[in-house]
Specification:
There is one protein chain. By secondary structure, this protein is α/β, with parallel strands linked by helices. It is 19% helix and 35% strand. The protein folds into two domains: 4-100, Translation factors (Elongation Factor Tu (Ef-tu), domain 3, Beta Barrel); 114-217, Rossmann fold (3-Layer(aba) Sandwich). The chain contains four helices and ten strands, in the order βββββαββαβαβαβ.
Length: 220
């Protein structure tokens, strides 16, 4: 049975001008219920005026067993996302459903794999959880992330990805594409689509060498 619990917002961190990472404090008694498989999501519930709104957001990380974090990007006309980005504050509480969803990957210590992750915009949110957990749990595995955005300013989790790269320099490859920002390399300019992926495969990636591919984006 799916259940909501009232969780307090521990902190809110800006990721871009339009997006925030929201970390909830999970009480000791509920920690077992909020264990998650990387790639799963949380449903948040709030009453705004006379309307009850529910929205699903992917879990991006859980830095310790007493916390769980999602990212929210404000969208035009989105009442819940605008509220979460502009009005929600640390110390406030929201109704949060226990983790749900079938997308994702559960890393295993004995597994050795070469993984490709493709993300566009806010699609990086579940990828961050999958990449971080895989590199931490599977010491023989490696991950290549291809991440598309309009510009560097609109890129979520840039620092978190840089921290992962510093921690796993030989096992994590980061490839950033920008569709509305000039790059020194034409290969790294433009949208992440089928044509661009073919170009990357021709010049930069051994696409056939990957054991598993994860895809998340607006049209994934």
């Amino acid at each position: 049975m799916t259940m909501f619990h009232s969780l307090k917002v521990a902190r809110i961190e800006p990721e871009t001008a339009e997006a925030v990472a929201i970390t909830f404090a999970v009480p000791d008694a509920l920690r077992g219920q909020y264990r998650f498989r990387p790639g799963q999501h949380l449903t948040l519930k709030a009453r705004l005026g006379d309307e009850e709104l529910r929205r699903c957001y992917s879990i991006c990380r859980s830095d310790n067993p007493g916390e769980i974090c999602v990212a929210v990007k404000a969208i035009e006309g989105g009442r819940f996302s605008q509220y979460a980005v502009s009005d929600l504050a640390a110390g406030m509480s929201l109704e949060v459903m226990v983790p749900q969803g079938t997308f994702g990957y559960q890393p295993q210590p004995e597994t050795s794999g070469n993984y490709l992750a493709l993300a566009v915009g806010s699609g990086i949110t579940p990828m961050l959880a999958i990449i971080g957990a895989t590199l931490a749990t599977e010491p023989q595995s490696s991950v290549t992330l291809v991440y598309g955005n309009r510009s560097s300013a609109s890129m979520m989790f840039r620092q978190a990805l840089a921290d992962l790269k510093d921690r796993y320099p030989q096992r994590l490859q980061l490839i950033y594409l920008f569709s509305q920002e000039r790059s020194d390399s034409e290969l790294l300019s433009g949208r992440l689509d089928g044509a661009k992926l073919k170009q990357l495969g021709d010049h930069l990636l051994d696409v056939k060498g990957f054991d598993r591919t994860f895809i998340c984006g607006r049209k994934a």
